Amino acid sequence: MTRRVIVIAPSTTLRTAWELMVTCRIRHLPVVRGGLLLGIVSDRDALVHGRIVGDAIDVPEVQVAEVMSPFPFVCDPTTDVADVVRTMVEEKIDAMPVLDEGERLVGLVTSTDLLLLLAESSLARPLPFAFELAPHEPPHEP
What we know:
Layout: H1 14-24, E1 28-33, E2 36-42, H2 43-49, E3 51-53, E4 56-58, H3 64-67, E5 69-70, H4 81-91, E6 95-99, E7 105-110, H5 111-120
Antiparallel strand pairs: 1-2, 2-5, 3-4, 6-7
C-alpha cells in the first residue's frame, strides 16, 4: 500500500494535477475534501481531456471535480490482497483507495504496489503460463 498518498482538492485544475503526477512520477491522485474521498483522477483522465502539442501534452484548466471518477472502488486496511487484486483486474482499474472505519482516506493500493509485493514474496518464481501467439487475420474482402 502506498503510505504517503498525495491528495488534491476538487477545485484543483486538471493541468495542475497532471503536472503533479509528472513531477512526482505517479499516476493517480485521490480527490478529497476534509479527509473524505470524493473521487480519483488519473493520468488517463489528463490524456483523454488533453491534446498533444509537439512533444508535450496540453491539459485544460478544468477542475478535477469535472473529470474525476466519482465513487471509486475502495477497500479497507484489512481487505485480503487477493480480493483487492480480483477487484482491480475485474474492474480494469490500477488504483484502489483505502478507507478506515470512518470512511476517511488512509492509503492507496496501486498495481505497482501489488507487483512489488509479488516480487518480494515467496510467490516469485518462473512464469507459470503457456504462451501462444494468435495472429490477427484481417477480414477477407469480397
